[in-house]
Amino acid sequence: MPSRKFADGEVVMGRWPGSVLYYEVQVTSYDDVAHLYTVKYKDGTELALKESDIRSQSSFKHRKSQSSSSSPSRRSSSRSRSRSRSPGRPAKGRRRSASQSREHKDDKKKIIQETSLALVVLVLFKPSENNTKRYNGEPESTEKNDTSCIILEQKLKPDLEIKRVLEQYSLRSRKDDKKTEEIFSEKKTFVAVKPIEKVPSKTKELEFGGRIGTFILIFLLPATVLYLLLMCKQDDPSLLNFPPLPALESLWEWRVFGVFLLWFFLQAVFYLLPIGKVVEGLPLSSGRKLQYRINGFYAFILTAAAVGALLYFEFELHYLYDHFMQFAVSAAAFSLALSIYLYVRSLKAPEEELAPGGNSGYFIYDFFTGHELNPRIGSFDLKYFCELRPGLIGWVVINLAMLLAEMKIYNLSMPSLSMILVNSFQLLYVVDALWNEEAILTTMDITHDGFGFMLAFGDLVWVPFVYSLQAFYLVGHPTTITWPVAAAITVLNCIGYYIFRSANSQKNNFRRNPADPKLANLKFIPTATGKGLLVTGWWGFVRHPNYLGDIIMALAWSLPCGFNHILPYFYVIYFICLLVHREARDEHHCKQKYGLAWERYCQRVPYRIFPYIY
Fold first, then answer.
1. In which residue ranges is the amino acid composition biased (Basic residues) (predicted)?
2. Band (107; pLDDT cuts 50, 70, 90)
3. b/e per residue, 68-100, with b = 16+ CB within 10 A?
4. Both 428 and 496 in a single domain?
5. Mean pLDDT (whole number) for 30-49
6. For 48, which DSSP code?
7. Model confidence over 436-490: pLDDT tens digits?
8. Are 23 and 47 found together in one domain?
């Protein structure tokens, strides 16, 4: 194992990824496995660099140029100049010996070589205005780098002047000059254009309580789903009235598991249909971009047609309500089996395909958070498929089943107003997500989190069976609301949806085309990555306006259930905790990614989710 060259805390010069610019950085740690240094730039940005991309500060202290006024070539050149003679001819009454001529030529060659080397150094270390601004995110930081560049230019200016004079008065043939220029061009190209390959390092900062926390969550999440569903089945679903545990054999039925598999693979078939456009995701650490087919809305239309056909042939959809607990257990068992498969296959995945947040080396942690970033079977992306299709569309089907079950149990000709509101609000939310499917490619779930138990269980179990809790609750605990109350709840949901959709659209449009004339009124702070942080519009109001809209909608979904029990408000309480935790994760990642620009953004936009509160 090679020994490390730079110590922790040492101040060195680090190359900015994707460029030839070097900046002063401080070494913070070293990964013995990946052989990568974690360095911190002056603006707070932290990156992992290879040893070949780091140089000591002493290597940037160039020796004094030899092309001073006392240079032999300059003296001989000045002595040989005359108004009546060619610069190349010797002075009158003076004969130049062969040895003197050779020395003179050797001196000129030496100066040309030194000047060529100086130009290569200048190309390497002179940051352009655009790159410097893009790195620092503000013009104040660029002044420091430009000053160091000017000093270097002043040191090299005599060498450049000598080269200009020698080229003008040189005795060599133009053929030789052309050959020298070609050699110099090749040297400059070789040095300046060297691609930098990013290799993901080990995950050092563990989330969700680390190994112990993720181990507990693997058991706590399924237990929470089971507890909530059992509570909804009780006549008195108060917190102090703990439900009795059901018999284990009542929780499993192979027929139900077969129906769940049929549903899962039906959605997979819809996903594989060659309909919808194909788009590219964000660049991976290797620079490669994966392709995704955007056809989630078409899959929803086909699913609606299939469900309509079942109802036409008098299939009893309330079968879902009668076996709701068994469906939840079947989905949990399938998600566990899928998680095991994902972890086993990730052990053979290349290093560059592992998830930045799930590469800790600890089995439990990587199993929970996901070891591989984008597991695929051919062109079938498992994470992207599960993110929207089986669970999200299944959520709407479950809500419809609860609506039909309420009508059957209470012999209603039409569903209750509370049930209509819950179904309508959540249907709008799902259709919106599928219509704007492309926007999910920029979320943390796709770009950062691996596909493990956390996302598999969340997509296939938590979303369809916990998010439908209000509809499930209303079947066993009908609630009557008046039309004015229903109108007020509808207005609240519309406000939340407007904030949620307009904020997300503003962000997505700006990411796609910041130069769009429609966005000319938006102001932003440039960052080191070349992206901008919006400081006007919704994103100048709070840092996560989409989260604010989400929480307002979650409250509107729970209000139709009344205030007799807190159980139907579990969703909004959980959602606030989820989004606050996710906001903290976003804050940490953005500070590392954007550095000083993110600190400026936080000063401009002090409130995170709730204005004047948090």
1. 76-97
2. low
3. eeebebbebbeebeeeeeeeeeeeeeeeeeeee
4. no
5. 79
6. E
7. 898 888 888 888 889 999 999 999 999 999 999 999 999 999 999 999 999 999 9
8. yes
Gap between the terminal Cα atoms of the chain: 49
526, 532 Cβ separation under 8 angstroms? yes
Instruction: Please check whether residue 463 lies inside any domain of the structure.
Output: yes
Say how far apart CA 76 and CA 87 lie, in whole Å.
10
For residue 280, give the 3-state DSSP assignment: strand
pLDDT at 182: 41
**In this structure, is residue 440 part of a structural domain?**
yes
CB 162 within 8 A of CB 74: yes
Shared-domain flag, residues 227 and 277: yes
Write out pLDDT tens, residues 524-552: 888 776 777 887 788 888 888 888 999 99
Contact 532, 564 (CB under 8 A): no
Our count of domains for the chain comes to 3
Where does a domain end: 428, 446, 479? 479
Task: Extract the tokens encoding 9.
Answer: 């805390």
The answer to whether position 296 is within a domain reads yes
Q: What is the pLDDT of residue 201?
A: 61
- Does any domain span residue 259? yes
Nearest to 326 by CA among 210, 246, 215, 399: 246
Residue 370, φ and ψ in degrees, nearest 5: 105, 120
Q: Is 321 exposed, middle or buried (0-12, 13-18, 19+ CB in 10 A)?
A: buried
| Sign for the pseudo-dihedral over CA of 324, 328, 333, 339 | positive
What's the confidence (pLDDT) of residue 69? 41
3-state secondary structure of 235: coil
Task: Determine whether 280 is exposed, middle or buried from the number of CB atoms within 10 Å of its CB (0-12, 13-18, 19+).
Answer: exposed
The count of other CB atoms within 10 Å of the CB of residue 8 is 12
Residue 144 tokens read as: 């420091």
Chosen domain end from 58, 74, 98: 58
CA–CA separation, 551 vs 544, rounded Å? Answer: 11
- Please give the residue range of the domain that contains residue 299: 210-479
Report the candidate in 256, 276, 369, 263 with the shortest Cα–Cα distance to residue 320. Answer: 256
List the CATH number of the domain containing 43.
2.30.30.140
- pTM (2 decimals)? 0.67
Q: Are 402 and 504 within one domain?
A: no
Residue ranges of alpha helices (H) inside 410-536 are 417-435, 444-447, 453-457, 463-466, 469-476, 483-512
Lowest mean pLDDT among 321-325, 413-417, 609-613: 609-613
Which letter, b or e, does each residue of 327-360 get, where b requires 16 or more Cβ atoms within 10 Å of its Cβ? bbbbbbbbbbebbeebbeebeebeeebbbbbbbb
